[in-house]
Amino acid sequence: xxxxxxxxxxxxxxxxxxxxxxxxxxxxxxxxxxxxxxxxxxxxxxxxxxxxxxxxxxxxxxxxxxxxxxxxxxxxxxxxxxxxxxxxxxxxxxxxxxxxxxxxxxxxxxxxxxxxxxxxxxxxxxxxxxxxxxxxxxxxxxxxxxxxxxxxxxxxxxxxxxxxxxxxxxxxxxxxxxxxxxxxxxxxxxxxxxxxxxxxxxxxxxxxxxxxxxxxxxxxxxxxxxxxxxxxxxxxxxxxxxxxxxxxxxxxxxxxxxxxxxxxxxxxxxxxxxxxxxxxxxxxxxxxxxxxxxxxxxxxxxxxxxxxxxxxxxxxxxxxxxxxxxxxxxxxxxxxxxxxxxxxxxxxxxxxxxxxxxxxxxxxxxxxxxxxxxxxxxxxxxxxxxxxxxxxx
Length: 393
Fold this sequence. Notes:
The structure is a single chain. It contains 14 helices and seven strands. By secondary structure, it is α/β, with parallel strands linked by helices. The protein folds into three domains: 3-114, Nucleotidyltransferase, domain 5 (2-Layer Sandwich); 121-216; 218-378, no CATH class. A five-stranded mixed β-sheet has the order 3-2-1-4-5. A two-stranded parallel sheet has the order 6-7. The longest helix has 34 residues, at 183-216.
């Protein structure tokens, strides 16, 4: 290709380093400020220059850069941050933005860049909605826990399970706060209730929007219909982050991408072995955990495993894929099996000969299968997963 370059992205500036292979000229500099308008103006210099390609890391800010590159007719190559840094070798000099941009350009020019999958636009939008929904759920849980903590700290009677779910329960909670809490405690509870009302006002419409999106995405419909414990929102999260056919070369890589694989050691050799890596998208791990909790039902296919581990460990451990020591003899391991089943459902051929995720979204206008896919890893969040070795069962 005539022009190959690298972009190092930061909030205040974007450092570029590109090589014109026809003349051997190398140009370096910065794009300031780092916003869509200035990036678009800078890319105008490559109009009519033939084949142009730029590499960038899959960290915060990569999305709009990749969109502007595609709009300008320039090939965007998304590098996996951990693997890209590993190819740098031992650190001998201070790392700067210029050296990062040059490193990306060198890897791309030599064909050694560990690339990520760039999802289509509608999948990125669904991911953003799912992340917002996950944040709101976490915020709601935090305020509920704060109310219970205030009552416990001041020695008030324990609240019932449904104290925050009905109007009668809320009225009883306010009466209990007035009777047993100090003025500061009453203010804490009143503030928490106001925040819960604001969060719930956003959660309702967002939940309906996500369910509507799941009804229009073939992969989500397939998972919701065939995978036990996967509702519309869970199936949508699995589809948006696990992708479709050609995304991963094996189901084991899909499990590792989720961040629920068991590690032997951490990158700095200080982490204890036998723990979950917790790398990759937090929303995907949350969705898988929610699906795992459904196996607490007696009618669930993997209830035997859940009950056995819960008796020896606890309910949370039973819903997650632990190490080999957690798996009772003769029983399957539903934690990893759920990710593998989801992967196989998404990659299995459909009735028309295609795949679940290859079917176009009616509101997107572009089939996912026609969009560029590079490599077998995936850029799903600001911190893509770091590959780690696993314990042998």
